[in-house]
Amino acid sequence: ATEAGSFISLKDYVERMQKSQKDIYYITGASRETLEQSPHLEAFRAKNFEVLFLTDPVDEWVVQALTEYSEKALKAVDRGDISLDSEEEQKEKEKKREEATKEFSDLISLISDRLKDKVKEVRFSNRLTDSACCLVADEYGLNANMERIMKAMNQTVPDYKRILELNPDHAILKAMSAIHQKDNSAPALNDYADLLYDQALLTEGSIIKDPLRFTRLVSDLMVKAAQL
Question: How far is CA 91 from CA 23, 150, 163, 171, 192, in A?
């Protein structure tokens, strides 16, 4: 990886690509420090795939025009449905994702219904290895960074919903599922769905709508954990 303050050319990036890597990956944002913490990078780190950090606002327009280099597509890590695996690994992960979708189907329906005014879809992720959730845009949709830039330029931001991706291996999903099996109308389930969405916003550097409610819910969870 390139050290902070240093730069890498596309030529050098391509020369350093892993043999199994097919595309050039990038992520846009306000600063390297913020991007380094992004949950969107987890699967890429696991594969040791480098991701370009693009932190200048003009980069959003540059990558719209520069869609490939050296016959390799430039792909944003926070857009579309990413797959970094071999065909065999992909089949195994798809099988696992199908099993998780079946196991947590009722819970996913509840989260989707709770967040229907905020997200376009709730689905399981190929990106996440450690974090519980993240928000992604459609393949050609408006990502969080572009939305912030447009607002800073006083431009009208389209009414656009992104996709909430969940990590099926995360403990919070199993905890929510256990609650749902005992009582599918438990108020805590809606609170947890809201927390997942706000958590996804915070990890990408976006502002949450109701920070007071968020902190109250987190405090309540801390008290309950301390009482166990």
Answer: 20, 39, 23, 24, 31
**For residues 66 and 155, what is the distance between their CA atoms, to the nearest angstrom?**
24
> CA angle, 172 as apex, 168 and 173 as ends, to 5°?
40
Coil, helix or strand for 217?
A: helix
The residues with which 166 forms a beta bridge, in sequence order, are 124, 133
Tokens 């959003």 locate to 60
CA-closest candidate to residue 137, choices 103, 104, 164: 164
Q: What's residue 216's pLDDT?
A: 95
Residue 25 belongs to what H/E stretch? strand 24-28
The radius of gyration computed from the CA coordinates of the chain, to the nearest angstrom, equals: 19
| Cα–Cα distance for residue pair 146/60, rounded to 1 Å | 7
Backbone angles phi, psi at 192, to 5 degrees: -65, -40
The reported pLDDT for the residue numbered 130 is 94
Query: How high is the pLDDT of residue 228?
Result: 66
Question: Which residues are CB-neighbours of 21 under 8 A, at least 6 positions away?
Answer: 47, 49, 84
